[in-house]
Every structure is written in C-alpha cells, then in structure tokens.
Amino acid sequence: MSGPGISVVICAYTEDRWEDILAAVSSVHAQSRPALETLLVVDHNETLRERLAKEYKESHDDAVVRVLANAGPRGLSAGRNTGIAAARGEIVAFLDDDAVAERDWLRHFAEAYTDDRVMAVGGRTVPVWASGRRPDWFPEEFDWVVGCTYRGLPRGRVRVRNVLGGNASFRRSAFDAAGGFATGIGRDGDKRPLGCEETELCIRLSRARPDAVLLIDDRAVIHHRVPEVREHFRYFRTRAYAEGLSKALVARSVGAEKGLESERRYATRVLPAGVARGLRDALLARPGGAGRAGAIVAGVLTAAGGYVVGSVRARRGGTTFRVPEVEVAARE
C-alpha cells in the first residue's frame, strides 16, 4: 500500500447501536484503499467495551481492530482524542458509529494528502432516513441537523474553513500544532445535541498553521442513518437551539469574526434562497413547500435564540471548555 497510513477512529457509546457499529467497521474493512487499523473508542460503557473486545478478538478478519475505553471525560470530543492518541497512522480519519463508508472513501482522502500543505480532508455525508424517505417539510439546507452534508456547501474538492466531524480526516501533525478536540463543546451521549467541536478545532488549526489547507472532497461519501426520532420537528428545533449554544462557545474561543464567517454567507444567501424555493413549491402545490420555508425560518430563529443564551452564559462564565494537548502514539 503506497501513501500515508490511515487510522480510522469510530466512537461508540451505546449497545442500542450494536448492528450499526458492526456495519461501520465492516465498511472500513471493505475499503479499496485499506486502513492501517480501526480504533473503536467506547465512551464510559464497560459492558459495550467488553462486548466489542470479545467480538473482534474472536473475529477472523485480517483487518486490525483495537477496542479502547475513552480515557477522558464523557463525550465525543474526549473519545476522539483518545483515538488520536492511540493512532499509529500518519492520517487519522473519523467515522460515525451509525454510518457506513463507500468503498473509495479512504482512497479519496489519501489522494488529497499528496499536497503537504493539506492538514484536513472531509467528505460528503448522505442521510439514510428511518422512514425510507425525507420528510416533506425537512429542508436540505438544514441537513446538518441530522449530521449530514447540507445544501449550500461547495461541490467537488474545494477549500473550506472547516470539515464536518462525522466524515473527516486530519494529519496527525495537525494535533501537534493545534491540540485536540475541545471538551465541553460537542456531544455527550444522550444529552443535549451540541456540536461545532470540529469547527473550533479547524479554526484553531488554521491559526496555528496559517499555511494549512483544509478541504472537502464530495467523492468521499458515507451514508449516515437518521433514526425516526430525528425526523420530527421537535428534534429539529432542539438541535437548532443546541447549535446556537455551540456557536456561542466557538465565537468565545476564536472570535465572532472567524467563528461566524461561513455562517454569515449561509444565513444571508443560502437560507433566503431556500425560503424562496419552498414558497415557490407551495405555489406550485408541491408537497411540503410551505413547511420547508417555515422550518428554515423557525430554525434560524431558534438557533439565534440559542446563540444569544450561549453568549450570555459564556460571558458569565457559566459554560467552560478545555483544549487538551494530545500525546500521540509512537509510529511503528
């Protein structure tokens, strides 16, 4: 295998996703460009860790699977940092535990790293709706709500401010320069669906390495399962509010100018176009047009409310986060 070795990190926290976890690992094993290893990091669930360790200890698959316990506080950021510290590859890729990667996922990542300036590469995440189809009212502009690539992101292989964490890769040296994922921003099991930890890291990386190039290649595709509970407006609203809280923390960390740079374009160009498209569909009697327009407006207002609340909390010191240094494993 030519090119850099790639370690794939999959963070898991619940046995409810057992079949999804196995499918995620299988999709890594099926890559046209093999991974160096797969690291399963289990978030403070010893029963799940032991079950996975037994599953892959008894497996006859030739691919290397290592099962680790999250060595930090509960949450996705600390789980990812645990994986980074244990990874042996020059590149560390991240895959959600309820997603499967297409066969050439890692190949497209690896190709981008032929340029030494490239520090991170993300891909395209496609929703797989539990009901079998997108809800009529759910706007594509808000697919980030369910952890997927949303309308308004650039197509092809293009330079971006930040990659999206569920389908992303970084040079291991990026974490030497910028530290790991900040704890206190991202997800914590079944608690409020916060996010933006990868945004904060990417901005911090660009400051530490001004020459760094961050890319999205939409040929690096994964398919992300969207459970039925996330197809409802209640979750949509909760996730939008949580995003506002998270954006406030990012702005606190890196400043509002950089922290909201991409969001300004999204709010002033992408979302108005989405509302107009929804209203047009409503006039043409197409299903869900008015609902999509209304959902966009509601999502913006809800996220804005979360941002205001998060900003007030941050100023009062009620919400904290920490950027850890990550001591990486010695390369074999």
Q: How is the secondary structure organized here?
A:
Blueprint: E1 6-12, H1 18-29, E2 37-42, H2 46-57, E3 65-69, H3 76-86, E4 91-95, E5 99-101, H4 105-112, E6 118-129, E7 157-159, E8 167-171, H5 172-178, H6 197-208, E9 213-226, H7 233-254, H8 256-259, H9 261-283, H10 289-316
Parallel strand pairs: 1-2, 1-4, 2-3, 6-9
Antiparallel strand pairs: 4-8, 5-9, 6-8, 7-9
Helix pairs in contact: 5-6, 6-7, 7-10, 9-10
Could you give the order of the helices and strands?
A: EHEHEHEEHEEEHHEHHHH
**What's the average pLDDT?**
89
Biggest pleated-sheet summary: 9 strands, mixed
Tell me the overall shape: globular
Question: Roughly what percent helix?
Answer: 40-55%
Q: Tell me the total number of β-strands.
A: 9
Low-confidence stretches: none
Note the total helix count: 10
Please explain how this structure is put together.
There is one protein chain. With 332 residues, this protein is α/β, with parallel strands linked by helices. Helix content is 42%, strand content 18%. Strands 1, 2, 3, 4, 5, 6, 7, 8 and 9 form a nine-stranded mixed beta sheet that branches. Helix 5 packs across helix 6.
Quick synopsis:
The chain has helices spanning 18-29, 46-57, 76-86, 105-112, 172-178, 197-208, 233-254, 256-259, 261-283, 289-316, and strands spanning 6-12, 37-42, 65-69, 91-95, 99-101, 118-129, 157-159, 167-171, 213-226. It has 332 residues and is α/β, with parallel strands linked by helices.
